[in-house]
Amino acid sequence: MSKKIVILGAAESGVGAALLAQAKGHTVFVSDQSPIQPLYKEKLTAAGIRFEEGSHTLEEILTADEVVKSPGIPEKAAVIQALRDKQIPVISEIELAGRYTQAKCVCITGTNGKTTTTLLTYHLLKEAGLSVGLAGNVGYSLAEQVIDDKFDYYVLELSSFQLDDTYDFRPWVSVLLNITPDHLDRYDYSLEKYAHAKLRIARNLDSSGYFIYNADDAVIQQEFTSVFSEANLLPFSLHHRPDYHLAGYYTAENRLCTNLAPGMEGRSMEISTAGSPLIGQHNRQNTLAAVLCARVAGLSEQQIESGLATFRNADHRLQPVGEINGATFINDSKATNVEAAWYALDGIRQPIIWIAGGTDKGNDYTSLLPLAKSRVKALICLGIDNEKLKASFGSIVPHLEETQSMATAVRRGAELAAPGDVVLLSPCCASFDLFKNYEDRGRQFAAAVADFGNEGMRVGG
């Protein structure tokens, strides 16, 4: 039955939803309070879809049978409140797309590690020859891909915002990596509400589905009982645990054991991760989750090991970008919160020259103090206001200095580092004081490393 569907927000997910809704015979109107990027405007115009930008015309929006909302629009926005008052259903792009595909969806969420795990899972499945699409929070619209619906599988990165307005969407595999405080302003500053948003990923699983989750995460343990699930439960841990029938755990630094029928030891498969380029303890967790997804999809030990060895992570996530005088420079610009920086400091075993700073998001640095004390030789504060970093770490690290120049931060990092050390950009903060975004910050870091490396080589003759 044809409906009038209004799409709020005209970026990747909104435009994809609009194109899918129109392809399925619905009347579509798109409204964005901000200017629409030229690329998306062209797509809407080419499809003959009506749209407005720069404002929301409530009279038109409130005539909708159903509204698809961009994940960026908060519940407290006036337009959403008006829709709630009129009891007009509001759904997400993922909910809409799920109605029109029979493909098996592998859905991944968590506060940290979502993108790496999603890209790795997609890579493993694709390299093994499966017909697989990549979508969700990694920047590709699921709805737009579902128009042609040519894949047997989709691997989706889902944020809590994308999960908020799902109701009947049913993944085949749901992955929950971790839950730590983030975006709490969207959840009434309640960690419990944020956790429940994440756990929505598992609530529609049935006996043919799989729930892969981190048994080491305290918040997941605490809130897990709120999910009544008939699914096959596949918990994982960094260590073998007698209190759990684990589906995956490490038996050595670079070796993991997987067992899709926990308790039935005959079905276990040992996999070497020695070929993987990923760095750090959190990436060992991400790898476990991705390998379990691959096992559920039927991949062999050889397919998984060769896929791990050919994977290259997304930029700005613990990404080695060069070496100067024997010191390795690592770009972790995506680490915009304390937890992400903790994973970086915890995962790197060599002495660290740490470049951090930016726009503080109310950070509590307490959890980083022991790591800073044991691993960090010097802290270079890169930001306009570094007082909180200085107060937190000034008495902990042997050397602290500050700058507002990326080139200076890299030069000083090279000068302070000994051969074998790591110069780590893991800012712990948002980037908006000195940079456009975390990508811009990471690109400037990589460029400065390349420039200084070349300069150093020229000077050295």
Automatic annotation (TrEMBL):
<feature type="binding site">
    <location>
        <begin position="110"/>
        <end position="116"/>
    </location>
    <ligand>
        <name>ATP</name>
    </ligand>
</feature>
<dbReference type="Pfam" id="PF08245">
    <property type="entry name" value="Mur_ligase_M"/>
</dbReference>
<keyword id="KW-0436">Ligase</keyword>
<comment type="function">
    <text>Cell wall formation. Catalyzes the addition of glutamate to the nucleotide precursor UDP-N-acetylmuramoyl-L-alanine (UMA).</text>
</comment>
<feature type="domain" description="Mur ligase central">
    <location>
        <begin position="108"/>
        <end position="294"/>
    </location>
</feature>
<dbReference type="InterPro" id="IPR036565">
    <property type="entry name" value="Mur-like_cat_sf"/>
</dbReference>
<protein>
    <recommendedName>
        <fullName>UDP-N-acetylmuramoylalanine--D-glutamate ligase</fullName>
        <ecNumber>6.3.2.9</ecNumber>
    </recommendedName>
</protein>
<keyword id="KW-0132">Cell division</keyword>
<dbReference type="InterPro" id="IPR036615">
    <property type="entry name" value="Mur_ligase_C_dom_sf"/>
</dbReference>
<comment type="similarity">
    <text>Belongs to the MurCDEF family.</text>
</comment>
<dbReference type="Pfam" id="PF02875">
    <property type="entry name" value="Mur_ligase_C"/>
</dbReference>
<comment type="pathway">
    <text>Cell wall biogenesis; peptidoglycan biosynthesis.</text>
</comment>
<keyword id="KW-0547">Nucleotide-binding</keyword>
<keyword id="KW-0961">Cell wall biogenesis/degradation</keyword>
<dbReference type="GO" id="GO:0008764">
    <property type="term" value="F:UDP-N-acetylmuramoylalanine-D-glutamate ligase activity"/>
</dbReference>
<dbReference type="Pfam" id="PF21799">
    <property type="entry name" value="MurD-like_N"/>
</dbReference>
<dbReference type="InterPro" id="IPR013221">
    <property type="entry name" value="Mur_ligase_cen"/>
</dbReference>
<keyword id="KW-0963">Cytoplasm</keyword>
<keyword id="KW-0067">ATP-binding</keyword>
<feature type="domain" description="Mur ligase C-terminal">
    <location>
        <begin position="316"/>
        <end position="428"/>
    </location>
</feature>
<keyword id="KW-0573">Peptidoglycan synthesis</keyword>
<keyword id="KW-0131">Cell cycle</keyword>
<keyword id="KW-0133">Cell shape</keyword>
<dbReference type="InterPro" id="IPR004101">
    <property type="entry name" value="Mur_ligase_C"/>
</dbReference>
<dbReference type="InterPro" id="IPR005762">
    <property type="entry name" value="MurD"/>
</dbReference>
